Amino acid sequence: MSIEELEAKLKPGARAHLVGIGGVSMSPLAEVLYAGGIAVSGSDAKESAATERLRELGIPVTIGHFAKSVRGSDLVIRTAAVRDDNEEIAEAKALGIPVFERAEAWGHIMRSYRDAICIAGSHGKTTTTSMVAQILLAANVDPTVMIGGTLPSIGSGYRVGHGRAIVLEACEYYDSFLKFFPTVAVVLNVDDDHLDYFGTFERVKASFAAFANLAPPEGTIVCNADDADTMDALRPLGRELLTFGFDAGADVRGEHERPEGQGVSLDVLYEDRVYCRLKLRVPGHHNVMNALASAAVAIALGLPGEAVEDGLRDFMGAGRRFEFKGKINGADIFDDYAHHPSELKALLDMTLALPYERVLLAFQPHTYSRTATHFDAFAEQLKRPAATFLAEIYAAREKNTYNVTSADLARAIPGAVHCATFAELTDKLAAEARPGDLILTVGAGELDTVGAELARRGEEANTPDAPV
Q: What is the CATH number of the domain that holds 161?
């Protein structure tokens, strides 16, 4: 289906059915369409906070996929993980109801904005999109925002604004971001992820290059000068690039990075002058790089450095990005979405430098394909904490055709403990926790429920609920 066909269908009064409506970018899409006068319904494989919220808004959601759910719809929109053999998709096609991809719908929405800022990268998309959103809010741009997580300052993963700009995550999986229409295309980094789809790292790089090239000649490509793979992918385009990093040749350059409390401060230079001075409340060099990317976006939009300073001064991170959950037995509990070895490394580099006596890591691998492909790299990182606990692999869209388990991973890590259930994992962490510990629950699956349960037990025991 073409963007013109989608635009002809997606008008106020139309009936749109969303398959996979509870997903991190599908649920905000449902809300944005509903707010625009579209009659929205949807389905998902399971109940979630997102499906509950949609029902509260008046959007009917069915749990399970049934052919009858699409009948009467003018169009169907599906998430990238839903394929043609899904019962609802098959029925829609049999009835002649047009089926569109989620990314096509977001692409349609962003065409109505003067500035469409699309944040791509193997890692850091949610945090950087959140940072850019706060900068735009500080600059009174009144942006529309779509984040693959929750931004505490807006209390949601999305915001419908009335200004000239939209900022959203641009995911590479299934080449979804190639359906977008960015005026500012951001590439934070390029890594060998989603090889179950791409097959080779060269195809990953080619996809990011194609995404960057979607920016029009009058638009801007923002990219990471410090990441060799990003530059290898984008230099052959022959396009002007607005680079960020600490590399001496970066257009937007960080200098004088130094710890400040549990955060970081640094100067941001552009055209060899100080553009802004940042004081970040989130730790870690990876967050410094996210902040530099956000500053580069602000420069591309012609915003003053003061907006970057004001927007990031109180930035405390996005949901599930080193998010404080509570305390138990005097130990601090944080949750993080890291699910690739590079993300684990960045998280552990940051947390092992913090003033805790021990780091206890509970990790839930995400998908069999990623676990098998990066098995040795995962094992190398998971050896670093004082203690590592492994939950069962979160299958997501896959079946275990890779013949890999969390128990296999545990055997490759000295002292690691494999837990068959979340209940067992929660009990083991609670028994091990002591003052001076940092407990990390990590992964893109459902492991955050363990952190929440530990925090609940801590509250019941009248444990103080603020981090040290």
A: 3.40.1190.10
Last residue of a domain, one of 287, 313, 339: 313
User: Are residues 151 and 31 part of one domain?
Assistant: no
- Return the higher-pLDDT residue of 27 and 2: 27
Dist CA 257 CA 279 (whole Å): 10
Considering 295, 313, 331, which residue would you say is the last residue of a domain? Answer: 313
Q: Cα separation of 37 and 451, whole Å?
A: 38
Backbone dihedral angles phi then psi of residue 265, each to the nearest 5 degrees: -125, 155
Domain that holds residue 450: 323-460
Q: Which residues pair with 253 in a beta bridge?
A: 245, 269
Q: What integer best gives the mean pLDDT of the chain?
A: 94
pLDDT digits over 221-271, tens only? 999 999 999 999 999 999 999 999 999 999 999 999 999 888 999 999 999
The answer to whether residue 290 scores a pLDDT higher than 90 is: yes
Token look-up 């990031």 returns 312
389-407 pLDDT, tens per residue?
Answer: 999 999 988 999 999 999 9
Catalytic positions are 125-126, 169
Domain count, the chain: 3
What is the model's pLDDT at position 251?
A: 98
Domain identity same for 254 and 303: yes
d(CA 315, CA 280): 7
Domain match, 138 and 93 both: no
Q: Based on the domain organization, do 342 and 250 belong to the same domain?
A: no
Q: Are residues 169 and 86 in the same domain?
A: no
CB 440, CB 361: distance < 8 Å: yes
Q: Is residue 467, in this structure, part of any structural domain at all? A: no
Read off the pLDDT of each residue in 32-60 and give the average, rounded to a whole number.
93
